[in-house]
Amino acid sequence: MDDWAEYTNPLGVLRDFGLSCLGAGEQADATAGFESRHLDSHALVIITSGSGSYRDRRTGAAGIAVHAPAILSITPGTEHGYAPDAAGWSESWLLVTGSGVQPYTRLGLFDRTRPVLPLRELPALGTEFAELRAALGAADPIAPFAASALCHRILVAVAASIRPADPTAAAARATAAFVESATLEISMDERARRLGLGIAELREAVRTVTGSTPIELLVQSRIRMARQLLVDTELPVSRIAELVGYADAAYFSRLFARRTGVSPSRHRAQFTRGRTTA
């Protein structure tokens, strides 16, 4: 691993509507760290070998021990410090900003209460950092977009490495049964009861498997079923609404439009083969 660091200014459209990379780098056998640092962006540091410690106001002076493979997940405005131990560590890092950061918090990244996360294994990354180095150093109008895409790939790989390899069998079974019964017009308490769970247990099972909430998973499942029925059948929208669990067809149509960006009839026209889109 070569030691390198590249920085760039944020591209407005990516910052406002996506993910903008502000910098990245790699360092082998680093022996120095940071003290009392504040960042204006989100930072992800992947510790690939070695050990050290991390500190912020929540951890106190004792800090948190860091042992590779692990990540440091740092949020804007958080005063923090970190450093390898005397033997040093190797790290890869990136700085990102923009509205596109927020979805990754649902996958466990950039949670100020969990700045140090052990990894199950090193992320499945190949040439992403080498490509990111080239993109950040390029004077090409497409380079910021390439850098953004590479950051997404890195963040997804890291998120996959901090989550359990497989959710518990019980949580997976409960979540699958929950999805199968998504079309039933029953309360969330009743859904949990039929699964032999309390509402808190249902919430935890769904979160473990999907990273989402039961109500969000319920809506996603119903909309997914509705989209398929709209394309595969000629049933009226009101009947499809009933089949996926909504007695009020008008409410269903509004919800469908909010979730997909188009009305049910528009979705049918766009994705049914042989139809002409008006």
UniProtKB/TrEMBL annotation:
<keyword id="KW-0238">DNA-binding</keyword>
<dbReference type="Pfam" id="PF12833">
    <property type="entry name" value="HTH_18"/>
</dbReference>
<dbReference type="InterPro" id="IPR003313">
    <property type="entry name" value="AraC-bd"/>
</dbReference>
<dbReference type="InterPro" id="IPR018062">
    <property type="entry name" value="HTH_AraC-typ_CS"/>
</dbReference>
<dbReference type="InterPro" id="IPR020449">
    <property type="entry name" value="Tscrpt_reg_AraC-type_HTH"/>
</dbReference>
<protein>
    <submittedName>
        <fullName>AraC-like DNA-binding protein</fullName>
    </submittedName>
</protein>
<dbReference type="InterPro" id="IPR018060">
    <property type="entry name" value="HTH_AraC"/>
</dbReference>
<dbReference type="GO" id="GO:0043565">
    <property type="term" value="F:sequence-specific DNA binding"/>
</dbReference>
<feature type="domain" description="HTH araC/xylS-type">
    <location>
        <begin position="172"/>
        <end position="270"/>
    </location>
</feature>
<keyword id="KW-0805">Transcription regulation</keyword>
<keyword id="KW-0804">Transcription</keyword>
<dbReference type="GO" id="GO:0003700">
    <property type="term" value="F:DNA-binding transcription factor activity"/>
</dbReference>
<dbReference type="InterPro" id="IPR037923">
    <property type="entry name" value="HTH-like"/>
</dbReference>
<dbReference type="InterPro" id="IPR009057">
    <property type="entry name" value="Homeodomain-like_sf"/>
</dbReference>
<dbReference type="Pfam" id="PF02311">
    <property type="entry name" value="AraC_binding"/>
</dbReference>
